[in-house]
Amino acid sequence: MHNEVQYERMRPRQIVATRQKCPVAYLPLGTIEWHGHHGPTGFDTITSHALAIRCAQATGGLVFPPLWYGESRSEGLIETGAEDRENIHQEMNLPTENFDPGYMRFSCQQQYENYQRLLLHCMHQIQSLGFKLLVFTVGHYPLLDHARAACCVFHQSRWNNKRANMITWAFVGNELIQDTHPDTAGHADYWETSLMLALEPNLIDLNELPKDPKQKPVGIISDRPVQQASADFGEKAITRIVERVSTQVKDRLENPQRYRGHGWQA
């Protein structure tokens, strides 16, 4: 017996046995951006990957290596959208022009389309490996729309006049528990920091935050002082997310026809 769920770390016999038992693949999505002085720049990807592992351990299935790159670097990032973005550039010792429109040599629209093509490539690849359900665990909120758009396109794709065998689903953790955790949409905030404290506590240093909770930290959007973040809160939220993911995954595996029609919920 083994309890490894990360696809790239497993041998073929292990992969086949796990996939036959539960043909679900998890693909974490995230990015690299500023998450305060107290958190790692890979915050979103690290948490979405760790959450995917928790989900696979609970539901069965396998977790693919996370996708760190490919999203638009011209907008949708804290370095380009925050009111105090110039302070972030200064803290990272980077020139502001590195984040100017045009620096990436592609328009925002081209970057969006390229990212969705990359997601479609990943979906077809994972389908070719024998999975019946692909779940995107999304760590960076703006990527959720792109994942869902790619899911819709994938579901309409045909090969040899046959529709895709695999169904797909994309979620971001906080949306699944809005009824019990309504204030969970900040950036490097109490919510995200609590999740990281539960999943990868060694990557957080709350001592890097201002001593005065009324002082606004650079590049953080939070309605509650980040200094109050706790692993206990994060663990309770993660447990509830995993429970609801398990319910959704079970229904999709048992009733795939519900998710194959036009206008289905991605």
3D architecture notes:
With 266 residues, the chain is of the alpha/beta class. The protein has one domain: Rossmann fold (3-Layer(aba) Sandwich), CATH 3.40.50.10310. Helix content is 42%, strand content 9%. The chain has helices at 12-21, 43-59, 78-81, 85-91, 108-128, 143-156, 173-176, 190-199, 231-254, and strands spanning 24-29, 62-63, 133-138, 158-159, 162-163, 167-172. It has a four-stranded parallel beta sheet, with helices on both faces. It has a two-stranded antiparallel ribbon with strand order 4-5. It is globular and about 55 Å long. The mean pLDDT is 91.
Specify the number of helices: 9
User: In percent, how helical is the residue content?
Assistant: 40-55%
Averaged pLDDT: 91
Number of strands: 6
Describe the protein's topology.
Blueprint: H1 12-21, E1 24-29, H2 43-59, E2 62-63, H3 78-81, H4 85-91, H5 108-128, E3 133-138, H6 143-156, E4 158-159, E5 162-163, E6 167-172, H7 173-176, H8 190-199, H9 231-254
Short account of what is shown:
By secondary structure, this protein is of the alpha/beta class.
List keywords for this structure.
single chain; 266 residues; alpha/beta; Rossmann fold; two-stranded antiparallel sheet; 9 helices; 6 strands; globular
